[in-house]
Write a structure and sequence with these properties.
With 73 residues, this protein is mainly α. The chain has a domain of 29 residues. Helix content is 68%, strand content 0%. It is built from 4 helices and no strands. Helix 2 runs antiparallel to helix 3. The radius of gyration is 23 Å and the shape is extended. The mean pLDDT is 82.
Length: 73
Amino acid sequence: MTNEADTKQSEPRKSGKTYYRGSSEAVYGFGLIGAWIYYFSTATTFWVGVLGFFKGIVWPAMLVYEAMKLLGM
């Protein structure tokens, strides 16, 4: 037999905060697909294609690195 107080304690608390996702997820997703298409189409061997898969995942970091190198930062 459970009482009402035990039932209320087991429910997760709601913080009242609402989180909105921006369009950056879509931009990253399209960039990921585009990078994979580019790297896979230019791959000459299987292992270069595997490397292209991983490069496609981290392309934003590579882009920021190259931009900072170009700007001399």
